[in-house]
Design brief:
2 copies of one chain form a homodimer. The first copy, chain A, is built from 6 helices and 5 strands; from the N terminus they run ααααββββαβα. The first copy, chain A, is of the alpha+beta class. Chain A has 2 domains: about 80 residues, Winged helix-like DNA-binding domain superfamily/Winged helix DNA-binding domain (Arc Repressor Mutant, subunit A, Orthogonal Bundle), CATH 1.10.10; about 50 residues, Dna Ligase, domain 1, CATH 3.30.1490. The interface between A and B is medium-sized, with 33 and 32 residues. The structure holds a DNA duplex (25 and 25 nucleotides).
DNA sequence: CTTTGTGCAAACGATTTGCAGGATG
DNA sequence: CATCCTGCAAATCGTTTGCACAAAG
């Protein structure tokens, strides 16, 4: 998984004539090892925790490059917050209203329903279910 | 429908100690009569089409007031685009990748599935299915 | 040595805010 | 006449861009 993922960035960037820079690699690796779809701000502080790795502008540039080659996508779950995700496979999201915890919901969880429930005429190509509610921990602590 | 809807703004704003100003009313009425969840920019040009009705700042203020009292909600379908919707009932969205056409999908279309398919522990309170694809017109003209 | 990328700082666009004047209760 | 709201203009925040220097092919 980690091998094929780092392969992915090298192969894919090269295939698009883009270089595999330390900054791009660091951004992608960080997205891969996190499950919480961080914001640019979170990426910035996380990457530069132990010494300077990348500037803010370069993180934006890197994310743009990674998105253009299809390694990364944006995730819109909250108003005014843009998150980034190295899982470009179709999947859905659960977001805890209390703690903000975000977790992925596998695509096949809702797989069968969209095709069968949409009105005729609309041709679905992609869909995402965004569920908001309470996660286990927050339900318990109430 | 239109009677109960305009009642809604008068009653709801007053119940929250807010005034029903021409600008707030115009914003809400415009959202009600549209089905396409406009952006602030679209609201601004639409409202001021035939003479000045509201400034940009006041549209933002009005939308904030209307959101606070629960008459309006934001809709996030595209990156970097914030839309507003006077339909605060739960519902889903279809967005045409080609022409940008947006249409509502009734909530009961997917009603039965979220409750039954989520993993135990997560307590759903609200969910939205965002479908992207091709609408009738765009499929035909291809 | 040519091309591509970084990082700073300035620019930008969408949204928010401060404030003086206007409308409302 | 006290309160709330509008509208302008300035401020703010996230993101993008221009440009000089650095790194990679």
């Amino acid at each position: 998984m980690s091998i094929s993922s780092t392969d992915a960035i090298v192969d894919t960037l090269k295939a698009h004539g883009l270089r595999v820079t330390p900054q791009r690699f660091a951004v992608y690796a960080n997205l891969l090892e996190r499950t919480d779809h961080p914001t640019v701000e979170q990426l910035l502080s996380d990457l530069n925790q132990a010494g300077p790795v990348s500037s803010q502008a370069t993180i934006y540039n890197s994310l743009q490059a990674l998105r253009e080659v299809g390694l990364v996508r944006e995730v819109l779950l909250e108003e005014g917050v843009v998150r980034y995700d190295a899982n470009v496979e179709q999947h859905h999201h659960f977001r805890c209203r209390q703690c903000g915890h975000i977790e992925d919901i596998p695509w096949n969880t809702f797989h069968e329903l969209v095709e069968s429930h949409l009105r005729p005429g609309l041709q679905p190509e992609r869909y995402e279910v965004t569920v908001t509610g309470c996660c286990d921990r927050c339900s318990e602590s109430q």
